[in-house]
Write a structure and sequence with these properties.
alpha/beta; Rossmann fold; six-stranded mixed beta sheet; 25% strand; binds adenosine-5'-triphosphate; ABC_transporter-like_ATP-bd; 10 helices
């Protein structure tokens, strides 16, 4: 079966004044894969994610998502594509004045023509899918631990039953046990829901545990894509120090690789 490209980025350029972050960057994301996006701090991983999900307008280039040219599309078409995706930000980006259940239900208000009671039941389903206890739905974000906040952010990203999930540093700030539990959760959700996942991370354990392919951002573009094993053979100093450094070896040893 021919693999389907669900995100196609071509000729992407992003600059902030004199700071050129991306220049003629290209990337494909295939349906059903978990793609890890790595790169040094400041290489433009978050800017790439924000460009794809429409939170910022790139300086130049073309982005096709789920068959729609998102930069050229009408606001209504962009919103329709956006409703088929979910984004989880590093800090969860939850509304502090809303309970977890209300946070998870918030995207449904606009997009789903269902009453408040149904929205609450659907939100509770998402809350249980991410492994939070039922009582977490009544809590406000301030009452959650870091790990619970990540899960609540994930539940909200799953609110509209998305095809593509964007995760920005999902395990940052978590202790190793919680991070590993998050990896396991991501793997099981991805299987159960048939998700495509665009995962920005620095976490080698997460890459090893969850990703089918990795894309390395360097020198303003996607320098290389491939499996973790392929990364170890790439002749580039940053790629070598990242994928063949002591931390990478530790991650591989744990994974039995
Ligand atoms: N709104 C903005 N205005 C000006 N410069 C910006 C803006 N957003 C990002 N940048 C710049 O773009 C570059 C890439 O930032 P980005 O946050 O995408 O990096 P990153 O690879 O995600 O880094 P990290 O791993 O540290 O999170 C940085 O030089 C940053 O200062």
């Amino acid at each position: 079966m021919q693999a389907e490209t669900v995100i196609e980025v071509r000729g992407l350029t992003n600059r902030f004044g004199a700071n050129v972050v991306h220049e003629d960057l290209s990337l494909d994301v295939m349906r059903g894969e978990v793609l890890g996006v790595v790169g040094a701090s400041g290489s433009g991983k978050s800017v790439l994610l924000r460009s794809i999900v429409g939170l910022m307008t790139p300086s130049a280039g073309q982005i096709t998502m789920l068959g729609t040219d998102v930069l050229g599309a009408s606001a209504a078409d962009r919103a329709a594509v956006s409703a088929r995706t979910g984004v989880m930000f590093q800090d969860g980006a939850l509304f502090s004045a809303l309970t977890v259940r209300e946070n998870v239900a918030a995207p449904m208000r606009e997009r789903l023509g269902v009453d408040a009671e149904t929205r609450a039941s659907l939100a509770d389903l998402r809350i249980s899918m991410v492994g939070l206890p039922p009582e977490a739905g009544d809590l406000f974000p301030a009452a959650l631990s870091g790990g619970m906040r990540k899960r609540a952010g994930l539940a909200r990203a799953l609110s509209l039953d998305p095809e593509i999930l964007f995760l920005d540093e999902p395990t940052a700030g978590l202790d190793p046990i919680s991070a590993s539990a998050f990896d396991t959760l991501l793997n099981s959700l991805r299987k159960a829901l048939g998700l495509t996942v665009f995962l920005v991370t620095h976490d080698l354990d997460t890459l090893q545990a969850t990703c089918d392919r990795v894309a390395v951002l360097a020198r303003r573009r996607v320098l290389v894509t491939g499996t973790m094993a392929q990364m170890r053979a790439v002749d580039d100093p940053w790629v070598q120090s990242y994928f063949n450094g002591p931390r990478a070896h530790a991650a591989l040893a744990v994974a039995g690789g």
